[in-house]
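Hey, I'm writing a tutorial for new members on how sequence and structure tokens pair up, and I'd like a real worked example in the thread rather than a made-up one. If someone can provide the structure for the chain below, I'll link this post from the tutorial.
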Amino acid sequence: MKRKSGQNPDITKNWKPATLAIRGGTARSEWGETSEALFLTSGYSYDRAEDAAARFAGEQQGMTYSRLQNPTVEMLEQRIALLEGAEACRATATGMAAMTAALLCQLSAGDHVVAAKAAFGSCRWLTDSLLPKFGIETTTVDGRDVGAWESAIRPNTKVFFFETPANPTMDIVDLAAVCGLARAHGITSVVDNAFATPSLQRPMNFGADVVAYSATKMMDGQGRVLAGAVCGTEEWITGTLLPFHRNTGPTLAPFNAWVVLKGLETLDLRIRRQSENALKVAAFLEGRVAKVLYPGLESHPQHGLAMTQMAMAGPIFSLYVGGGRAEAHGLLNGLELVDISNNIGDSRSLMTHPASTTHYGMAEEARLEIGVTEDMLRLNVGLEDPDDVIADLDKALASIGR
């Protein structure tokens, strides 16, 4: 690989995000390809035995094994780091691999984690079920309440873990306040930024230490592959995350990395248009259902905070139909354009019933505590004409008498 401008920090430091999304991290082979090359290889050969020894000892630059390095994956890692404003990034096989690695790499038996109650179901499984199995104490708090974070701190608290906006309740965590509190107490803040991406929100600008992603979502943006990423300082990524990543192997496949690289080229365009579409659809639904939870609406209780942290409110929101599961499922079954799917971040509009899908694994009491009721639905607004999405929702609502 030849080092090109996309990997030259003296050049990339002057580039705007839209340029970084196209060219950041790009390296070209001797063939001079314009699109990023796809390197489908598990291993690498060496000219001399001494070269292999030097690479494994860290004395010579170069690839050793694709569980550790791959040229295509490395380009993706550099591009995400540049977009995030982070010193370094490691890509993972899935978003949940990113969340798991970001936590387990820095925690040991006897440590304590404070996490927001409102979170993706699998993230709650990490804090509620997995970490305690290894002797790691956890406390869940209302992420919106800065005082609750402070009250939960113990002498052994090592990590704050939360997502904002939260899935699916759209709770907003005050990034500056909570991350500042963490730093003041020597606690590492880990922020799941999948709903916003660096195009709409950069948590490190507000003091976050580690930012994790499901790149499956908006970064790919077209429902094609699974991927994840963890961003942080060079010291943290190399000294804390890398040993865990190297030896446990949640490695991203080169093909998936290449697909996400292609997705990043249009991320800013897609997420901004989808945010515009979502705002229009959410405004329509406000007059038709019991409640809409979308930070872009002035009716959202944390609208002001959200707009200080985010450039736009994103493509995803939740709503309460009113009634129970029968009404929620009835609306889903009445859809013709919008797909019933538990994915998010897709260019297609998708809707799901969290209580029976994404948050099915949570105890009912925990679901109800954060507001995931039987009449809640989560909607990912895509790139279709928003008027067509509205017409489909209008018809589906009419089918259940709304």
